[in-house]
Task: structure prediction
Amino acid sequence: MLNRIMFVLCAIATGLTSAWGQESVAIGSRVELFVDSYLIDRLVGAEQRLHPPTEGETVIAFDKPWEGRFCGYVTVIKDGDTYRLYYRGNPTAGKDGSTTEVTCYAESADGIAFTKPNLGLFEVDGTRENNVILANMAPFSHNFSPFLDTRKDVPAEERFKALAGTRETGLVAFVSPDGTTWKKMREEPVITDGAFDSQNVAFWSEAEGQYVSYFRVFSDGFRSISRTTSPDFREWSKPVEMTYGDTPREHLYTNQTAPYFRAPHIYVSIAARFMPGRRIVSEEQAKALGGDVKYSGDCSDAIFMTTRGGSAYDRTFMEGYIRPGLGLNNWTSRTNYPAYGVVPASDTEMSVYVQRNYGQDSHHLQRLRLQTDGFVSINAPYEGGELVTKPFTFDGNELAINFATSAAGSVWIELQNADGSPIDGFSREDCDEIVGDEIARVVTWKGSADVSSLAGKPVRLCAVMKDADLYSIQFRAR
Result:
């Protein structure tokens, strides 16, 4: 009886919101996540649910003499079988771009156990036995932010690129063939209009066919973000300030905007939210922690945003994504800043990294764990719920869904015409019940997965669920 009621509700929900003649969205064979409302027409008894990552391992301690309490602005890159880790080394607090700052490098085969190679590139603290890849080049080690250039036919000597600089210098472009030996692309800055006193990131966007950079500005008294684009990483467009929908303004310290590796047309931003003057730890408590009292009067966490290009972030979720947690160590200033880069850990798990205990002798980088595609789900309770998508067209001959149910839960998928009517052979009642927890379960209707007859035609997807989460869908050719 419950299943019958849910099926009827799905049909009613579609009928209530169907826009006759509504233009369909072309999704091809790409993975589509439900991090925003791009595909969602209506939810009945279901909701978009944010899934914060769970705590993992300490992957690196900032314990070398040239590293220390004030390391910052971490980047993690998965390059083939190697995880590359970059960060600012800085044992003493000072002016942005001080001569004590260096850029450090570590690497790992699994994204968990990182080693600091003795590269011998620069002498620091009287030795070349260190993991420093940039030194004696103030102010560029302050916020050196590299990325792996995925553009087709990129010259081998420019396989890695980076931006670094302050308001005084502007952002200067760097290039590298191997990720460890770097040089300036040119002496003059490539981006000049911004505050830049943070981690300013860039990447090649396959979806937009151009380079994109997101960087720090100040707007109406708030730390904010602007965007600029470039065809060649040398000449950049006039920056445009990002918007955040109808949401309260907040200080966003780092933006960490990057294409999601399984769906690069969606840019994920796990940004540091800064709460200036919000003191949680007293000066006496900060001293007891072994921290710098100067960095104890504020607190911060991380939030989750997305964008599909253009000048607008989607802030469906205002809640904290990475919280400071138990104890006082991460309730001081400028801790909990996420690294730039969400990387795969396995076929079923992703890694996010966050700085912990900033300004303290125990300063370190922690890995956080997340199910593949698991940022946001369409969640239905035990009583049941439904998702109805907007009309879309797809390529391929089968549908795979990333989902999870309880032992009592279920998912059924119905494919509909654009007007909301069930398509013969693909109705809810034809669908074979889906139970479990899988990254790519192929949906079948009476034992058949073949949806090739619908490829290229406008359809809707209606997901009928009970005690279940739906993270993503993908039509594909097999």
Residues 2-17 form the longest helix (16 residues). The chain has two helices and 31 strands. Helices lie at 2-17, 283-288.
